[in-house]
């Protein structure tokens, strides 16, 4: 790949002065192409932050004679209001560590960080261009999402201590470069199971912060299961009063979110470029609901609360109309406070629901979701019941063939990929891992990385893939430290698989980039698993 041309966009007076020099620089610069390969560089020495980015950008052109230094006078300047939230996020991260005011200014007038709106159309909806000049870091994007993604890259170009919550000594340097970047897939997801163990809003926000740093754009909250119902439903109050009163292991408490707390979580995610997808798992994985309301059971008897970790024993009563009234009320209330397009209906492991009932159930539930303006996504089992190609099956199997998913892909459905033996973050890394499960296998970091979402399932090619989601089930996880130990470093692996080009896939090049994140995670207080497969930067 040849070096990219200098950045397009409205010329800014002080940039014209450096432009010709930068073009010359480009002729001798390193080019790190989408392949992740250093194309040419007699002068390449120690790794720079440009070679340590996760996920790997499509194109990086270093300008080795340029360094930008963030100073106390710098402003974060936005050309339009659509860049305000990304600007505010960046300011909120950098103010504590730098001690600089980093005022957000409307219009572009001075040195500092500049968010412009006229990116190369090639970067699409989620991509960005980032140009580091002596006086400015310029991030161009066509959407708010693109600016969020550009900001995630800028964070990794600053020293790790930029992530600190207390004032640190500078200098705050960014290496000269022109980056052009956009994702392989439109959907880069993470899921947190707050049903098996409940996590407080602050714990959930902490995880949202962590996933946002890796350009994750969907956060799937698994809000109900056999062990707990975790969101207030005003028309069915016992769901949380009873169903939200305990969790795996039997702890007692108000273990649920009020609708206001959920709205706050959704807004928090939104201010980090992330859309929340709420999941209410059905018709199986419903013991918490069946314990809350007798009428949801075919025999009209409440089930006891469940605090163990078995699966497959519960089912809503398929033949009763009240079941669908219940589901409609849930979908209606949740849709009204969920701005995102997707509603996740679960549908997995309905082992206590006969097949014919499962089909009957889905035939009634899918139209309810549509009625409230949402698009159904669900674990892949549900897709055998519908020919609607707008719906999104999430593949979570451990095999590389699934006839129903392949048939859906042939019809035109886009598949979200979460193969359990690759990217379930709750699988143990090795047999000595204290947390997690091993039913899908032991998943070391290299195993998590070693698959191609666009060529994994038979009959499901690149064009049928919507994206990659890394689910984190919490049967064995109780604290933020537990979450982080299982998610790091594999969540960034999933982010790389969902964002970076297939051509850049190369473990030997990826491992050092991943290892370079270690110092940043230490500053952020992330208790990651220091896999011996990864060369961790000191
Ligand atoms: C699942 O792991 N049962 C989706």
Largest sheet: 8 strands, parallel, barrel
Helix percent band: 25-40%
The set of bound ligands, ions and cofactors reads: acetamide
CATH architectural name of the largest domain: Alpha-Beta Barrel
CATH hierarchy class name of the largest domain: Alpha Beta
How much of the sequence lies in strands comes to: 15-25%
- Can you tell me the number of structural domains? 2
How does this model look, in words?
With 538 residues, the protein is of the alpha/beta class. It has two domains: 18-181, Chitobiase/beta-hexosaminidase domain 2-like (Chitobiase, domain 2, 2-Layer Sandwich); 187-506, TIM Barrel (Alpha-Beta Barrel). It is 30% helix and 17% strand. The strands form three sheets. Strands 8-9-12-13-14-15-16-17 form an eight-stranded parallel barrel, surrounded by seven helices. The two termini are 32 Å apart. The structure holds acetamide. Acetamide is lined by residues 348-349, 379, 396.
């Amino acid at each position: 790949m040849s070096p990219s041309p200098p950045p397009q966009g409205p010329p800014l007076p002080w940039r014209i002065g450096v432009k010709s020099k930068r073009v010359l620089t480009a002729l001798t610069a390193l080019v790190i192409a989408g392949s992740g390969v250093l194309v040419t560089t007699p002068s390449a020495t120690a790794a720079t932050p440009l070679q340590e980015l996760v996920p790997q950008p499509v194109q990086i052109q270093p300008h080795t004679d340029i360094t930008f230094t963030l100073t106390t006078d710098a402003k974060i300047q936005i050309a339009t209001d659509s860049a305000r939230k990304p600007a505010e996020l960046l300011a909120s991260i950098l103010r504590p560590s730098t001690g600089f005011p980093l005022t957000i200014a409307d219009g572009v007038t001075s040195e500092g960080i500049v968010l412009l709106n006229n990116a190369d159309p090639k970067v699409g909806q989620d991509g960005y261009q980032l140009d580091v000049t002596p006086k400015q870091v310029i991030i161009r994007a066509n959407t708010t999402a693109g600016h969020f993604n550009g900001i995630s890259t800028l964070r990794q170009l600053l020293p790790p201590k930029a992530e600190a919550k207390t004032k640190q000594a500078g200098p705050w340097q960014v290496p000269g470069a022109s980056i052009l970047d956009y994702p392989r897939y439109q959907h880069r997801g993470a899921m947190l199971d707050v049903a098996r163990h409940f996590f407080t809003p602050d714990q959930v926000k902490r995880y949202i912060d962590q996933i946002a740093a890796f350009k994750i754009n969907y956060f799937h909250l698994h809000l109900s299961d056999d062990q707990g119902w975790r969101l207030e439903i005003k028309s069915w109050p016992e769901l949380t009063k009873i169903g939200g009163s305990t969790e795996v292991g039997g702890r007692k408490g108000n273990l649920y979110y009020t609708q206001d707390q959920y709205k706050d979580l959704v807004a928090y995610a939104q201010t980090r470029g992330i859309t929340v997808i709420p999941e209410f798992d059905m018709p199986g994985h419903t013991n918490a609901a069946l314990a809350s309301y007798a009428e949801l059971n075919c025999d009209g008897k409440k089930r006891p609360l469940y605090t163990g970790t078995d699966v497959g024993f519960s089912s809503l009563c398929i033949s009763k109309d009240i079941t669908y009234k219940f589901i409609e009320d849930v979908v209606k209330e949740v849709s009204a406070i969920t701005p995102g397009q997707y509603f996740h209906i679960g549908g997995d492991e309905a082992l206590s629901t006969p097949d014919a009932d499962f089909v009957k159930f889905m035939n009634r539930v899918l139209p309810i979701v549509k009625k409230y303006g949402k698009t159904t996504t669900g674990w892949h089992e549900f897709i055998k019941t519908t020919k609607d190609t707008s719906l999104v099956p999430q593949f979570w199997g451990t095999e590389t063939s699934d006839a129903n998913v392949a048939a859906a892909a042939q019809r035109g459905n886009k598949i979200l990929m979460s193969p359990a033996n690759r990217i379930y973050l709750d699988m143990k890394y090795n047999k000595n891992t204290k947390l997690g499960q091993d039913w899908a296998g032991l998943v070391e970091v290299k195993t998590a990385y070693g698959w191609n979402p666009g060529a994994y399932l038979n009959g499901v090619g690149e064009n049928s893939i919507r994206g990659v989601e890394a689910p984190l089930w919490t049967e064995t996880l109780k604290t933020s430290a537990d979450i982080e130990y299982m998610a790091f470093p594999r969540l960034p692996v999933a982010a790389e698989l969902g964002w970076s080009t297939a051509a850049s896939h190369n473990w030997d090049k990826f491992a050092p980039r991943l290892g370079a994140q270690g110092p940043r995670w230490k500053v952020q207080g992330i208790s990651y698993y220091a896999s011996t497969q990864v060369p961790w930067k000191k």
